[in-house]
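hey m, so remember when u said the tokens were messed up on ur end? i reran from scratch. heres the input so u can diff it against urs
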Amino acid sequence: MNNFEIIKACPIFKDFTIDEIIEVFSVISYYEKEYKKNDIIIAENTKIEYFGIITDGRITVSNFDYFGNRNILNVFEKGDSFAEALVSLEIQIPHEIVSLSNSSIIWIEYKSLSKSQYYQKILNSFLTIISTKNLILNKKLHILSKRTTREKILEYLSNQKKLLSLDSNFEINLNRNEMADYLALDRSNLSRELGKLKKEGIIDFEKNKFKLL
């Protein structure tokens, strides 16, 4: 395996040296797998023993309502990890994970981490990551609690601006369909309201690049 620099960029291993990461992977159980766009990586209600680190591509964590409408919970990209809480709690996955593009993932067996001398350090990273992701989900619930399409959009963009940029310009990692599914909005309503906000001089945007005015 030659992805140790990417693995070091993952929050789980950000405080590790490359030599320490190599040592960890010399004793744990793992494998690498590639996925095509729209491949189901993990189906809903599956019990898993491995968590993933993305070495290339983008994936989405979603669920679907009775009518088949997609609700995007989160999007993960190169260097991100996912499913840590599920393997540590040994529960079935309550949603579906799908590849948004051609993707590569390193799967790590959770139980095998105990073989490493850095096991406690990894667990500490797990706790930090899980807490951070819970905060992200809480922010999303706050966005969805807004009553109007406009309020949801502005709350989401405001959060993204704080997360991604020190100035008013930032680029989100969702296309329009994904943004609509994340905000639980109809795509046409989203596009219409974005157009109104731009016309009123509240925001400006070009594709995924936004500016709060």
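this time it looks ok to me. The chain is about 40% helix and 25% strand. if urs says something different then somethings off w ur setup not the seq
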